[in-house]
Amino acid sequence: MKHPPAQIHLPTVLHTLMVLVLISIPISNAKSMIEPCSSSDSCSSLLGYILPYDSELAEISYRFRINASDLLAANSISPKTLGDQIFHAKAFLRVPISCPCVDGIRRSLSTTYTVQAADTPDSISAGFGGLVSAEQIRDTNGINTQNPLMSGEKLVIPLPCTCFDNVNNGIASVYMSYVVQRGDGLGSIGAEFGVSTMNLVAVNGLGQPEVDPGDILSIPISACSSANLNWYNESLIVPNGSYALTANNCIKCSCGQHDLNLRCGTSGIATTCSQLQCKGSDLFIGDSHVNQTATGCNITTCVYRGHLGGKIFRSLANSSQAPCPGNQSSNAASPFSFDPGVPSIAISPSPSQSISPSTGALAPMSGQNFNISSNGRLLVTALSFSLLPLQLGILFLL
Ligand SMILES: *[C@@H]1O[C@H](CO)[C@@H](O)[C@H](O)[C@H]1NC(C)=O
Ligand SMILES: *[C@@H]1O[C@H](CO)[C@@H](O)[C@H](O)[C@H]1NC(C)=O
Ligand SMILES: *[C@@H]1O[C@H](CO)[C@@H](O)[C@H](O)[C@H]1NC(C)=O
Ligand SMILES: *[C@@H]1O[C@H](CO)[C@@H](O)[C@H](O)[C@H]1NC(C)=O
Ligand SMILES: *[C@@H]1O[C@H](CO)[C@@H](O)[C@H](O)[C@H]1NC(C)=O
Ligand SMILES: *[C@@H]1O[C@H](CO)[C@@H](O)[C@H](O)[C@H]1NC(C)=O
Ligand SMILES: *[C@@H]1O[C@H](CO)[C@@H](O)[C@H](O)[C@H]1NC(C)=O
Ligand SMILES: *[C@@H]1O[C@H](CO)[C@@H](O)[C@H](O)[C@H]1NC(C)=O
């Protein structure tokens, strides 16, 4: 069994659209999933990268030829981290890559590597966490005994990726290529990434629910998208657990904590942003006024509507009799949620109103109106969260 054929992927939602081909994956005994394609489009995808050694942020982004800001965003790490932060060996990072269609299959060829003195194809493969095999490095670059690695030589590093129309079982998803580690099983991998074993088997076209170390799995990560938000000229798909910066970095969007609705607010990192305030109000994008009533809350939110030609679109959206933020008995449906990593804060003046770090939700209100700001202007400095009530999404459809 030197070169077993690739496992064939056949997602039920796509099976009528796809012609599948058998392609040999040149990794001894290792399986990888191949997505045939014919279009010239590309999609957002992720690599699951387990760091082989301690590396600085800049080193990792250089290794994959991606932007450090994008790497932070994919991992929901504050952009304030940009600098010489060290990520330790064995740490898990999501690496965002664009997934084009090259010669009939999905894969990324945009990463290059400059050979160092002591490198071997195996050491280079290890540096990329096994996402590319030594044999793939040799094949892609014509390395053999006549043509050995030369120090200073530039290699193309083919990296595995899949798109599957950014959908999994009808849910917007971004696919992550993950190298199975020693000790991993489908169950443990599924549990870690919130995917059922059955789904992993189906997505990866596994004949039986078994994987071996070195296999590369395609893991669907649920995402929230702007598809139904009626945005101007902009479509965005953000995997749960990531954020995205848009509109010249003026706007930051991420999934809600309890749902897959896209929430956008001011990013607070770009300095030259205008048109962030909703007309006829004192609210900035992502901010809300909340008025408590006898039966619920009236909420007015300044929502992001996309950008075009340097112009940022936004509008006020109202929802009346909505669940109040922090009504803990209706937490799951709460329109308010905070980005992970937001420090615990108290809303003055009442010390009883505090953000619970565990749930990220506002504690119950004591019957008064208040304002919520997406970047903490009215609360505390550096508080950064965004909100978009579930109910408000419906307003866009009207
Ligand atoms: C990385 O992306 C950020 C935000 O999009 C941008 O401001 C910056 O110029 C980019 N850096 C490089 C090196 O491309
Ligand atoms: C962007 O919007 C303009 C005006 O609404 C429209 O004419 C144009 O086709 C849109 N472009 C894209 C790529 O959607
Ligand atoms: C998003 O991810 C978080 C943490 O990774 C998880 O707790 C939550 O259930 C996920 N949300 C959805 C809607 O899948
Ligand atoms: C809080 O939730 C409970 C149960 O969901 C509901 O009966 C109550 O009206 C809610 N209160 C507010 C202020 O939204
Ligand atoms: C909340 O109350 C203020 C005045 O107290 C009013 O201006 C505002 O329109 C109200 N907002 C909602 C959503 O009812
Ligand atoms: C929302 O309510 C405000 C007043 O509270 C009003 O000025 C505005 O027109 C309303 N917007 C929508 C979209 O209903
Ligand atoms: C809440 O909204 C309802 C319906 O829009 C309105 O009748 C009511 O006066 C509002 N209450 C407050 C406190 O703004
Ligand atoms: C909310 O902000 C408005 C405008 O700045 C202000 O008039 C109002 O008093 C604020 N409400 C609360 C509860 O702070």
UniProtKB/TrEMBL annotation:
Keywords tagged on the record: Signal
Record bears the keyword Signal: yes
Highest taxon in the source lineage: Eukaryota
Pfam families found in the cross-reference section: LysM
Residues annotated as domain LysM: 111-157, 176-219
InterPro entries (UniProt xref): LysM (IPR018392), LysM_dom_sf (IPR036779)
Signal peptide region: 1-30
Keyword Signal among record annotations: yes
Stated name of the protein: LysM domain-containing protein
